[in-house]
Design brief:
Blueprint: H1 6-19, H2 32-39, H3 43-55, E1 59-62, E2 66-69, E3 74-78, H4 84-90, E4 95-106, H5 109-115, E5 122-132, E6 135-145, H6 152-159, H7 162-168, E7 174-185, H8 188-194, E8 201-211, E9 216-225, E10 229-233
Parallel strand pairs: 3-10
Antiparallel strand pairs: 1-2, 4-5, 5-6, 6-9, 7-8, 8-9
Helix pairs in contact: 1-3, 2-3, 6-7
Keywords: DNA-binding, Transcription, Transcription regulation
GO molecular function: DNA binding; DNA-binding transcription factor activity
Domain HTH gntR-type: 4-72
Length: 236
């Protein structure tokens, strides 16, 4: 029988502690030096064991702050009415959206096609990051037709909620008409923002929402962290 590498044994011991609840989501692991002392090995061996756990999505590193047990996967429902805050709260988590860009600009071809606009028309474009219990779970881009939603840019900047901003712009309800899902890998920029390694699995969704008259009001793209989100398709 082949003897288990020491780094794998370290990973197995920590994996078991996480599974048994001795180390809970959000807990900081001992430092590399402390783990090296515990297992009687050098830091390189410890680092390799931690890397194996990171590849499994069980732990994640925060630059300058150490290694932490990763949060449990958040269940996220996709159906006719997709609402970020409601979905995250239904999973028993604390939702947060941080907008990093809100601007008015000419529509790009794919955006114009999705929203039924002429390419000469303008849109309100917003980018940001979604968090669950303070952990980054997705990067999002939402595009809105300027003429159909006067004041949308100001509303988004004020309330930081798509649903509430749409309500302020005269859209009390809206529904999802299409969602396309594909698998991709994180590039360096995405990985840095989501606190994952480059090449980690992402779930890419592309969607269109319409108002109660059937007019497209939002074209969105979202990149979910595969190890932190479980998508559930609601057919009810």
């Amino acid at each position: 029988m082949t003897e288990q590498p020491i780094w794998a044994a370290i990973a197995a011991a920590l994996r078991a502690e996480i599974a048994e609840g001795a180390r809970r989501p959000g807990d900081r692991l001992p430092t590399e030096a402390q783990l090296a002392d515990r297992f009687g090995v050098n830091r390189h061996t410890v680092r390799r064991g931690l890397a194996a756990l990171a590849d499994e999505g069980l732990v994640r590193s925060r630059r300058g702050a150490g290694v932490y047990v990763a949060p449990r996967s958040t269940d996220y429902q996709l159906g006719r009415r997709v609402r970020f805050h409601r979905n995250i709260e239904a999973a028993g988590r604390l939702p947060e959206k941080r907008f990093t860009l809100i601007e008015t600009r000419p529509a790009r071809p794919v955006e114009a096609a999705a929203l039924g606009l002429d390419e000469t028309e303008t849109v309100v474009a917003s980018d940001g990051i979604s968090l669950s219990d303070g952990s980054p779970i997705a990067l999002f881009t939402s595009i809105f037709p300027t003429d159909r939603l006067p004041g949308m840019a100001d509303a988004l900047a004020r309330v930081h909620s798509v649903t509430e901003a749409l309500r302020l712009c005269g859209v009390p309800d809206y529904v999802r008409t299409s969602t396309r899902i594909s698998g991709v890998t994180a590039d360096a920029a995405q990985a840095a923002r989501l606190e994952i390694r480059p090449g980690a699995a992402l779930i890419h969704s592309e969607s269109i929402n319409v108002d109660t008259t059937g007019r497209p009001i939002e074209y969105g793209q979202t990149f979910f962290v595969g190890e932190r989100v479980t998508l559930t398709l609601d057919h009810s």
